[in-house]
Amino acid sequence: MQESLSRKPDRDPDSAPAPPSSLSSMHAIAMPEAMQRRITELYEKLNRIDHYRLLGVAATDDTKTIKRAYFALAKEHHPDRWFRKDIGALRAKVDAVFNALTVAEATLTNAQKRAEYDAYLREVLKTRINRRQAEALEVAKDWAAAAEVWARIVEQLPTDAYIQHRWARALLRSRSGYDSAMAAATRAIELDSTRAEYRVTAASLHLAEGRDRSALAQLAIACEIEPDRVDLGELHAALAERVARNR
Fold it and tell me: Would the CA dihedral through 20, 23, 26, 28 be positive or negative?
């Protein structure tokens, strides 16, 4: 999605960096700045770290240790800490972090779920070389080749929202396979509805196909998830103006 909101985007807006100092640009909120930074940094890592790393435990730790780690983190990150307090744009991130902690604890303290998750992590390890290859192709701007590699990774990790998103994004940038790209973008959102960048990729794909209203709906959700993203707000406003003009 270009700043001009052209139909066939040269770049999608989730490739644009967030404002360099979104924390400092926020109005005064009822959360210490150090905590704001911790929440933001942890939120940014959620789709790239596993349950063990999130809870700060080892893969060999027992259930008692995992529960102890969870309760310590849950006490710090529970949304109720900020009940009826103005924490501005961080509200959605606080909720996402706590939900991720809860899912991690529920998974790792259930023997069957933990075994399934460990099997999933073994599959993740098998894709490491392919991931590096796909990322190198993206750096080289060979988006079509990158999309092919991401497609192979998706076959191995079909329930990984981040991988689905990367495949959709590569297809978008290659300007090909829009049906597959939209299916992958939709699947990424189904698997993880807390990521603004997934919504932005879906919006870009809708725009590429001339579906302005659908794109606007996705951008609106992205703005709700990350209301401190000035760039997303500007994109949403520009598209809303165009939709209104074309009624």
Answer: negative
Tokens 């969870």 label which residue? 70
Q: So what's the pLDDT on residue 247?
A: 81
Cα–Cα distances in angstroms (integers) from residue 143 to residues 16, 174, 176, in the given order: 17, 5, 10
Burial 130-153 (b: 16+ CB within 10 A, else e): ebebbeebbeeebbebbbbbbbeb
Q: Which domains does the chain have, with CATH numbers?
A: 31-126 (1.10.287.110)
Residue type, 207: L
Q: Is the pLDDT of residue 155 over 80?
A: yes
| pTM for this predicted structure | 0.77
The tokens for 75 are 């006490």
Query: Rounded to whole angstroms, how far apart are CA atoms 20 and 2?
Result: 20
Write down the pLDDT at residue 1.
58
- HSE, CB side, 13 Å, CA atoms: give it for residue 182: 14
Q: Which of helix, strand or coil describes residue 148?
A: helix
CA–CA–CA angle 83, 36, 218 (5° rounding): 80
Pair of tokens at residue 79? 């949304």
